[in-house]
């Protein structure tokens, strides 16, 4: 039957038969133990400009940084990541989240949940082969006066550095940072060190700063952060693959 359909699609294009590739999506594990890449056969009307992987850091038993008044990083990460996903989709990209709920990517009986979680995030990068990977996080420091977003990249990644520069510039401008921070090379963050492609880690705010912790919980500030990250991604991709003017 499959061979017959392929033959008809080739010989009789007027019938409107189309064979489309499976699309990659994420689905929540039925037991709430994390997410994994899943294939569906949903037809798409327009071609995607490519896949971008958005990684909301932490989740589940791992709250991430604990800020002022017990504010947990994991929830803020997910909210910003979801906003970024929508913005990227509006630009024609297929934005995939490593997690869509408050769940880590680990089995409950895993001996080392953190290690399994990080490995699974990197496995998604290997499977999806995204144009870029952006991991969303929040920062913390002993001095509550320290503020401002900062973007990290793997020290040996030239493309990672370019992406980090584009996002950092957009965030400093959009969030009106009084003392703008600069990008920083890193060789310890697991997702940067083990990512097979271009990846950056974005620390959107300092939860240890009462002022910034209050801002990052608002819809407006989260949207501004997501829009700035999206803008940086778009600038990087445009510079890497400039559109040719045929006029």
Automatic annotation (TrEMBL):
One of its GO terms (cellular component) is outer membrane-bounded periplasmic space. Residues 122-234 form the MurNAc-LAA domain. Residues 27-49 are annotated as: Disordered. The keyword Protein biosynthesis does not apply. This is N-acetylmuramoyl-L-alanine amidase. Gene3D superfamilies: Zn-dependent exopeptidases (3.40.630.40). Keywords: Hydrolase. Residues 27-42 have a biased composition (Basic and acidic residues). Pfam families: Amidase_3 (PF01520). GO terms for molecular function: N-acetylmuramoyl-L-alanine amidase activity. SMART domains: Ami_3 (SM00646). The keyword Hydrolase applies. Coiled coil: none annotated. GO terms for biological process: peptidoglycan catabolic process.
């Amino acid at each position: 039957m499959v061979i017959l359909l392929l033959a008809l699609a080739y010989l009789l294009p007027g019938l409107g038969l189309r064979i489309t590739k499976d699309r990659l999506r994420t689905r929540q594990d039925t037991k709430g133990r994390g997410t994994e890449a899943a294939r569906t056969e949903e037809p798409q009307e327009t071609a995607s400009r490519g896949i971008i992987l958005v990684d909301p850091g932490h989740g589940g038993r791992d709250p991430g940084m604990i800020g002022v008044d017990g504010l947990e990083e994991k929830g803020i990460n997910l909210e910003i990541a979801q906003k970024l996903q929508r913005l990227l989709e509006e630009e024609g990209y297929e934005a995939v989240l490593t997690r869509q709920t408050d769940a880590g990517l680990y089995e409950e009986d895993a001996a080392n949940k953190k290690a399994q979680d990080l490995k699974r995030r990197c496995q998604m990068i290997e499977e999806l082969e995204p144009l870029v990977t952006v991991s969303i996080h929040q920062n913390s420091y002993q001095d509550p006066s320290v503020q401002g977003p900062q973007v990290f990249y793997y020290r040996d990644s030239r493309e990672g550095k370019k992406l980090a520069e584009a996002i950092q510039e957009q965030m400093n401008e959009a969030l009106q940072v009084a003392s703008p921070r600069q990008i920083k090379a890193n060789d310890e963050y697991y997702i940067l060190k083990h990512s097979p492609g271009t990846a950056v880690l974005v620390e959107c705010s300092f939860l240890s700063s009462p002022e910034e912790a209050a801002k990052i919980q608002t819809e407006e500030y989260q949207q501004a952060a997501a829009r700035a990250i999206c803008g940086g991604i778009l600038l990087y991709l445009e510079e890497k693959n400039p559109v040719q003017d045929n006029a």
